[in-house]
Amino acid sequence: MGLTVIDYYGKQISKCGYCKGIQCSISHGMHTYQMTPHDYQDLIDRGWRRSGHYCYKQDNKMTCCPCYTIKCDALEFKLTKSHKKILKRMTRFLRDGKKERSEIGGTPTINNEGEGDEGQSGEDGARGGIGDEIHRPNIPVKNINLEAAGKANKNRQKRLTGEEKVARTLYEKSEAKSNDPAKDTDRSQNTCDGVNLPCKKAKQMRLERSLAKQAAKCVSPEAGMTKTRKCPKNPEKSLRDFIDDVTNADRHKLRLNITHVKSKQFEDTLKQSYALYEKYQTLIHNDRPNNVHDYLEFLQRSPLKHCKTEDGPSIGFGSFHQQYWLDDQLIAVAVLDILPYCVSSVYFFYDPDYSFLSLGTYSSLREIELVQQLASSVSSLRYYYMGFYIHSCPKMRYKGKLCPSYLLCPEAFTWHLLTDEIRSKLNAQKYQRFNPEVLAKDIDEFVEADINNVLLLVDQNTCITYNDYIQVSIAFFLLYILSFDMEAFSLFK
């Protein structure tokens, strides 16, 4: 598997990218020349992250915004209503190429969970949530006398109470006489014997029609009478089902290509990916990159060795770019590390022209689906790492909506399900130890004896263990002292 070669920098103090504080972000840092995927897996399971060749770990007790490593169990992942809405939105766009009404004019839609167009924010490569501000349209609000309106409504209810009772009774009788339940729910007139019935909402009418159709299908005539049977429930659609909901007649085609960062395919598409990155950084973060070198340094160059094993995925372990091609146009790129137990999200950028598709959340779902796909052949690979969860930064809390998600205890290094109880504790105090029961002696942590076997790079071609290095250093120090004493002795003589 090779060696991991690092240059440890020690404790670093810098500006915080989350609370924007000056000289308040405290972390440990090191430069990694090369690293095996297994070693990096062990590092991120101890709270480390990488940005290019630089690896860092927040000192959560001292830093302004404690960062907790978060992962999602992809094999137990549950779609929310908001996730389904985003997946269906993509399906409709691919089918007919039209935007929804709320998206016409380039206005981003806000979903039910309060998320808007998710981009990438922060150093840990996690997608951002809603923007700093949501600007509401400047429409003057009418002055309404709520007290007078409330009294008028109560008087109206008193006058109509008797009529409504009669209407409901007649309506129920007519329902009982009908032999075709499907027709009953499709009535276009909400009247009965000249009495107006209360209007139903469109959603309620659709639900009634759906239930009536299901009931009609479950009626089987036997011996001159009808016998009802239970209708089997439709199985809930999986993430893969939503993604596969495409046809050859669709107006647009979306394809995802995954390519290693040192492959010919990456080089062939470098021009398009850099142009997309430049557009994203300029329009979303107002931070235009200086040149392509900055892009490569940040998102292409990786210390992880690309290695393939018999028990690993066919594409191997290492650093990859997952490219989103809409027809022949590159609209998004996800930077990923594929490790022995997980797929780790490094960064994500997209074309702002397609922000109405909520590509940040959509790509998270596609990356979870990638884990599920890899897990079918590699049983140990089942987690999706989303970088850091910063509870004190509201924009980063969206990560906890991918359920089930787990946070890493910063002291015991054990995983804990992100629940409302943990959220309440983090609301009360930013730094928390999630495992109060584990004693120090039980923690699977680096012990002092292990350092004797760590290899130190003396020059480009020579490595020695830390124990040998200490012995050699002591020998050189004694020789230096001895030579100094001999010189002093000769001068004195």
TrEMBL record:
**Which residue ranges does the record annotate as region Disordered?**
97-194
InterPro entries, from UniProt? Acyl_CoA_acyltransferase (IPR016181), Arg-tRNA-P_Trfase_1_euk (IPR017137), N-end_Aminoacyl_Trfase (IPR030700), N-end_Aminoacyl_Trfase_C (IPR007472), N-end_Aminoacyl_Trfase_N (IPR007471)
EC numbers: 2.3.2.8
Keywords of this entry: Acyltransferase, Transferase, Ubl conjugation pathway
Q: Which family does it belong to?
A: Belongs to the R-transferase family.
Q: Which PANTHER family match?
A: ARGININE-TRNA-PROTEIN TRANSFERASE 1 (PTHR21367), ARGINYL-TRNA--PROTEIN TRANSFERASE 1 (PTHR21367:SF1)
Q: What does this protein do?
A: Involved in the post-translational conjugation of arginine to the N-terminal aspartate or glutamate of a protein. This arginylation is required for degradation of the protein via the ubiquitin pathway.
Q: What is this protein called?
A: Arginyl-tRNA--protein transferase 1
Question: Which species is listed as the source?
Answer: Glossina fuscipes
Q: Which gene encodes it?
A: LOC119641354
